[in-house]
Design goal:
With 168 residues, the chain is α/β, with parallel strands linked by helices. 34% of the residues lie in helices and 18% in strands. It has a single domain (6-15, 28-148), classed as Rossmann fold (3-Layer(aba) Sandwich). Helix 3 (93-108) packs across helix 4 (121-132).
């Protein structure tokens, strides 16, 4: 699905240092202190976007809600929580892809052109592939930005805006 809209996807701030991922805390992990700092940097980056997002959405998972609250403090933007932006957990890649496409189909109907969503890495991957018209696969479902990273997606493709590769 090629879109005339511009999407900004913000990955939540850092919420774990575990080598094996979130483990049992996948749905309850809170932002770590450094995750808060990085989320604040991303919020200030987002504040300077031109044109600014006209609508913003967030996953209901705590670390995304915390990240969205930080963005709100800096920008005054209001986030709408949408369960379809939740973490990729206990579902297949096909189900994740279907969930992302459902969200996109609804957002595409909005009378807005610039959309922001605060969500999770694999959800960003699923949304990117759906917007660009590519299938979500085992090879690209884990291709996403660092915590507090921002991806811009429009007709020109997908670009990681933050953090820049040299700052990783």
């Amino acid at each position: 699905m090629m879109s005339n809209k511009t999407y900004y996807f913000l990955r939540h701030g850092l919420a774990t240092r575990r080598e094996d991922g979130y483990g049992p805390d996948i749905l309850t992990a809170k932002l770590l202190p450094e995750g808060i700092v990085e989320a604040e940097k991303s919020a200030w980056f987002l504040k300077d976007l031109e044109p600014a997002p006209e609508v913003a959405f967030a996953s209901p998972v705590l670390r995304c809600q915390q990240t969205a609250e930080i963005v709100t403090r800096v920008t005054s933007w209001t986030f709408t929580t949408d369960d379809r932006l939740r973490e990729f957990h206990q579902e297949t890649i096909a189900e994740l892809s279907e969930r992302a496409q459902s969200w996109l189909a609804e957002v595409e109907q909005l009378p807005t052109n610039v959309i922001l969503a605060c969500t999770h890495g694999s959800v960003i991957a699923a949304l990117r592939e759906a917007i660009l018209g590519s299938p979500l696969t085992e090879a690209n479902v884990y291709d996403y930005p660092a915590p507090a990273g921002i991806v811009k997606i429009n007709q020109g493709g997908a670009v990681v805006l933050r953090p820049l590769p040299e700052s990783r």
